[in-house]
Amino acid sequence: MIFVGFGFLMVFLKTNMWTSVGFNYLIACWVIQLAIILIPFWRFVMEKHWEYINTDMGILINADFCAGAILITFGVLLGKVSFA
Fold it and tell me: Measured between alpha carbons, how far apart are the two ends of the chain, in Å?
């Protein structure tokens, strides 16, 4: 859903047809990687307890939801803002 759904949802825009698919892949990969690192980091900061960052299904699902929120915002920007 994150990689295919949001990218091809934005293809209908006249000005950003296939570019939006490429930006969708780029932004989704970047956000998922950052979320995998930053979600446990800030949890460790708040709890003042440091350990290794383990990648489990909970972190991956949270990172996927973070990417979904960012891509929804990106879709709003593509629909409302003129970049030309």
Answer: 29
Q: Which of 5, 55, 12, 10 is nearest to 35 (CA)?
A: 55
pTM above 0.85, yes or no: no
d(CA 31, CA 15): 24
Locate 56 and state its tokens: 């489990």
- 7, 11, 41, 77 from 17: Cα distances, Å: 10, 4, 37, 14
pLDDT in tens, 23-79: 888 889 999 999 999 999 998 999 988 888 888 999 999 999 999 999 888 878 877
Render 50-80 in DSSP notation, one character per residue.
-------HHHHHHHHHHHHHHHHHHHHHHHH
